[in-house]
């Protein structure tokens, strides 16, 4: 995108990561939504994003790692604004990124009035003069090339790090929605508990996430089990120890949170408005969000719901891409505002 153009910026400001997409370029940045500050003076910012994560505990002074977005909602407007501004500057490679560009930021459906005000304050503090706030489900649907303007029901299941949203979209709006406080972090926590209980080993969140990515599955192949040697701390002795884990072990660990997720989707389907329920036989279920990358999850949902399941190559980018497309389309912006599905910040 030309630095002098009146371009568009789409930002998916998540609890775990912030994803930035630019008009004509797509997703250009994905970094942790984190701020590293001095423990003595919170206002002294040391680093943002991946630099903040990397420097934590490695500086010559006491520091605090702050995550200003919790369960999809802005918990600290000033620090969230720093993340929004800093990462947008990095993506555009220049200062004052919102001076000539329209910004669109995603948010979970059903935010309270206070939470919406916090997000609006975050956007204003970041210096955005032309900004739009759009529900994540709508942005993800646009990012997946779904025609949201039609009178046809589409079920969007967005699995983030801390929350999962199940939304039915039709005619530019969210017709029905359910939000659960569970996501990919729940998968990691289940692995940590299982390894401690069954293997007698204490592991950290990063190790659990790596296990999930490397050999995690909710539809394992019993004839071709992967095996890894795991390092951690022995529960009894407290000394460093190693244990062998298989993909079958991880599947057992993940069974409960995955089962709860699938049951919630099935329950949401039961409560879909009758006029739209028939549409879902044709349109199926659209998975989005980083949590949907769990191996075997689309197949598990399809088996349990008997509906087609659609997932893109990079579902973690859907919302940011959709937000960018919305920001670049004046006609869509007006339609979303008229439908009450977007807010000008």
Helix content: 25-40%
Based on Cα principal axes, name the global outline.
flat
Can you tell me the residue ranges where pLDDT is under 50 for at least 5 consecutive residues?
Answer: 1-5
CATH class annotation of the largest domain: Alpha Beta
Overview of this structure, please?
This protein is α+β, with helices and mostly antiparallel strands and 345 residues long. The chain folds into three domains: 8-33 and 68-140 and 327-344, Nucleotidyltransferase, domain 5, CATH 3.30.420.40; 147-182 and 259-317, 2-Layer Sandwich (Nucleotidyltransferase, domain 5); 184-254, Actin, Chain A, domain 4, CATH 3.90.640. Helix content is 38%, strand content 27%. It has helices at 49-55, 77-92, 113-125, 136-143, 184-199, 205-215, 247-270, 274-277, 279-283, 297-305, 318-327, 330-338, and strands spanning 8-13, 17-22, 26-32, 35-38, 45-48, 63-66, 69-70, 73-74, 102-107, 131-135, 154-159, 164-170, 173-180, 201-202, 227-234, 240-246, 285-288, 309-311, 343-344. It has a six-stranded mixed sheet with strand order 3-2-1-9-10-19. The chain has a five-stranded mixed sheet with strand order 13-12-11-17-18, with helices on both faces. Strands 5-4-6 form a three-stranded antiparallel sheet. β9 (102-107), α3 (113-125) and β10 form a beta-alpha-beta unit. The longest helix has 24 residues, at 247-270. It is flat and about 60 Å long. Residues 1-5 have low confidence and may be disordered.
């Amino acid at each position: 995108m030309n630095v002098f153009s009146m371009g568009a910026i789409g930002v998916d400001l998540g609890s775990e990561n912030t994803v930035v997409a630019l008009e004509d370029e797509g997703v250009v940045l994905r970094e942790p939504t984190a701020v590293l500050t001095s423990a003595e003076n919170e206002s002294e910012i040391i680093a943002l994003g991946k630099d903040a994560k990397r420097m934590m505990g490695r500086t010559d002074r006491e520091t605090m790692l702050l995550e200003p977005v919790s369960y999809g909602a802005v918990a600290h407007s000033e620090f969230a604004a720093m993340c929004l501004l800093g990462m947008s500057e990095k993506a555009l490679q220049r200062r004052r990124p919102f001076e000539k560009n329209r910004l669109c930021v995603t948010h979970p459906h059903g935010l309270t009035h206070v939470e919406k005000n916090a997000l609006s304050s975050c956007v204003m503090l970041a210096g955005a003069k032309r900004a739009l706030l759009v529900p994540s489900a709508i942005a993800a649907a646009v990012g997946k090339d779904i025609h949201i303007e039609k009178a046809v029901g589409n079920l969007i299941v967005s699995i983030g790090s801390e929350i999962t949203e199940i939304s039915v979209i039709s005619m530019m709006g969210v017709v029905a929605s359910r939000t659960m406080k569970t996501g990919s972090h729940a998968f990691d926590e289940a692995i940590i508990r299982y390894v401690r209980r069954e293997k007698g080993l204490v592991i950290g969140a990063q190790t659990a996430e790596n296990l999930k990515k490397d050999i995690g599955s909710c539809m394992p192949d019993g004839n071709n089990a992967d095996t890894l040697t795991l390092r951690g701390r022995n529960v009894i002795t407290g000394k460093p120890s190693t244990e062998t884990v298989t993909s079958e072990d991880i599947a057992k660990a993940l069974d409960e949170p995955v089962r709860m997720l699938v049951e919630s989707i099935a329950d949401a389907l039961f409560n879909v408005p009758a006029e739209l329920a028939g549409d879902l036989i044709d349109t199926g279920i659209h998975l989005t969000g980083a949590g949907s990358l769990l191996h075997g999850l689309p197949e598990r949902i399809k088996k349990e719901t008997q509906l087609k399941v659609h997932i893109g190559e990079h579902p973690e980018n859907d919302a940011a891409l959709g937000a960018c497309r919305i920001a670049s389309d004046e006609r869509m912006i007006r339609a979303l505002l008229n439908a009450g599905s977007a807010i000008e910040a």
